[in-house]
């Protein structure tokens, strides 16, 4: 059975290793025995190696990796380097990295290269997709279809099996979110993505594909996403930095 997965995206937080270590140790210390759930924390990369020494119970990930293997790319880190220091997962295509105002303004073509390089370098991509607005004329479906098809361009059937998809509508993310998505909205997109990928790769190649939800995930709404939304897990941001809340989300996933 494929495990459910809870992936904490710490973003550019907290500001010191002392704090990061405290949050991480708090989570590890109170982590229940898990049989059906994998827990991942994606801290700022500078904390990764030290957090790795704390526990083997949690997998670590990073929030970005390069689209190339090595060379004259100032400031970049390759997938192989990151897996070499203990990362197992990489969040790719997050809306904050797609945003020109926040970071590089990454487009699907670049994210596609990152997905391919991540897999080749030994990382499991957590590919984020999601629309900016939900319009009544359903253009958001076309937007997500383009994100999926362009980000999976040239990705083989075997490589697909290594990818996790996170549906994170931009309007549901962070402090400025109007609301989280509803479980029904998540389920609609999850079925839609599976249809696109089964048309591309064949139905039998997507049976193990995990589609998780992100965007204002809290202990209060996690259960409904699992039950009504059939989510395979979550990508919480803010609540992944609050050990009590993160642990509550993990427990809800493990128990359901
Ligand atoms: P949030 O962030 O849970 O704080 O809304 C989610 C994300 O951006 O991955």
Largest sheet: 8 strands, parallel
Query: Number of DSSP strands?
Result: 8
Q: Output the helix-strand order.
A: EHEHEHEHHEHHEHEHEH
Distinct helical segment count = 10
Overall mean pLDDT stands at 96
Q: Give the spatial strand order of the biggest sheet.
A: 7-6-5-4-3-2-1-8
Q: What gap, in angstroms, lies between the N and C termini?
A: 14 Å
Overall spatial form:
globular
Q: Give the helix level as a range of percent.
A: 25-40%
The Cα radius of gyration reads 17 Å
List low-pLDDT spans.
none
What ligand species are in this complex?
2-phosphoglycolic acid
Structural class category: alpha/beta
Strand content is: 5-15%
Structure explained in plain terms:
The protein has helices spanning 17-30, 48-52, 79-84, 95-98, 108-120, 139-151, 157-160, 183-201, 219-227, 243-255; strands spanning 4-9, 37-42, 59-62, 89-92, 124-129, 164-167, 210-213, 233-234. The chain is built from 10 helices and 8 strands. The radius of gyration is 17 Å and the shape is globular. It has an 8-stranded parallel beta sheet with strand order 7-6-5-4-3-2-1-8. Helix 6 packs across helix 8, helix 8 crosses helix 9 (219-227) and helix 9 (219-227) runs parallel beside helix 10. The two termini are 14 Å apart. The mean pLDDT is 96. It has 256 residues and is an alpha/beta fold. 39% of the residues lie in helices and 14% in strands. Bound molecules: 2-phosphoglycolic acid. The site of 2-phosphoglycolic acid has 13 residues, from loops.
């Amino acid at each position: 059975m494929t495990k459910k997965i809870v992936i904490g995206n710490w973003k550019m937080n907290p500001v010191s290793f002392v704090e990061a270590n405290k949050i991480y140790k708090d989570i590890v210390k109170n982590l229940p025995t898990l049989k059906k759930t994998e827990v991942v924390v994606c801290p700022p990369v500078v904390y990764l190696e030290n957090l790795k020494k704390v526990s083997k119970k949690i997998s670590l990930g990073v929030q970005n990796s390069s689209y190339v293997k090595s060379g004259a790319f100032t400031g970049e880190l390759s997938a192989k380097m990151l897996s070499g220091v203990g990362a197992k997962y990489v969040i790719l295509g997050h809306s904050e990295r797609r945003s020109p105002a926040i970071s590089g303004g990454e487009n699907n073509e670049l994210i596609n290269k990152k997905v391919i390089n991540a897999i080749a370098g030994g990382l499991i991509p957590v590919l984020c997709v999601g629309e900016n607005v939900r319009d009544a004329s359903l253009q958001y479906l076309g937007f997500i279809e383009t994100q999926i098809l362009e980000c999976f361009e040239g990705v083989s059937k075997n490589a697909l099996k290594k990818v996790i998809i996170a549906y994170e509508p931009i309007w549901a993310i962070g402090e400025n979110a109007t609301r989280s998505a509803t479980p029904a909205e998540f389920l609609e997109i999850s079925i839609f993505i599976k249809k696109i990928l089964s048309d591309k790769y064949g139905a039998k190649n997507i049976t193990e594909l995990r589609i998780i939800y992100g965007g204002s995930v809290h202990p209060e709404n996690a259960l409904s996403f699992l039950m009504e939304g059939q989510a395979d897990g979550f990508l919480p941001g803010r609540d992944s930095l609050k050990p009590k809340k993160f642990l509550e989300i993990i427990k809800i996933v493990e128990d359901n």
